[in-house]
Here is the input.
Amino acid sequence: MRLLYIILLSLTTVCSYGQNPKLKIKHLKGELYIYTSYSKYKGVLTDANAMYLVTDRGVVVIDAPWDSTQFQPFLDTIATRHHQKVVLAIATHSHSDRAGGLRFFKSKGIQTYASKMTNEILAASKKPQAEFTFTADTTFTVGQYKIDTYYAGEGHTKDNLVIWFPKDKVLFGGCLVKSTEAKDLGNISEANLTQWPRSIQRLKYKYPISSSVITGHQAWGNRESLEYTQKLIKK
Here is the structure.
């Protein structure tokens, strides 16, 4: 009877782990994973995509769960799934779906990074900032992997940057790049509609052989998202 209870408990744990409605994780390729969290935007439950990379020296997280109640479950899931700790977190711009986890991550002993521009915007808004900053495009080396930050210019926000994973040829475009499912540009309260298409054009030239382009919201895909973003802006 006790053995049956343990089996049922294990099955329940596995089901719960795989069906968290507030946080979904999907393997992309190699040691790269996309995680999606949710929050209300203009009264509508909206998704936000972010990424993490598993290295032999720990896990690197790009952005943070949009829902603050998922900060700890996210770290717990990584620990359970990969038997690793998160050692580095990079925020790609100042909005809460990207930089909202900086204070939490820092409290857990995780090194937090953002561009100097992003930190200045956060400071002006009296929001928690990253512990460390960079002023130019930067390459992080963690374990056997390199992770590149690249600032293509203004677009969704003044400070939006992208992340390039050179080994797997994967571009995390974040909110600078729109999904082909998008009907409009979303939140443009801080957008530069003049510079945005030029910034996308720089991405196209910078990363001509990207295998996947991960968008900040909705379904991700390939380089078609770059073209589609430019079309949306022209509308």
In short: The helical segments are 2-18, 71-82, 96-99, 102-107, 116-124, 196-206, 224-234.
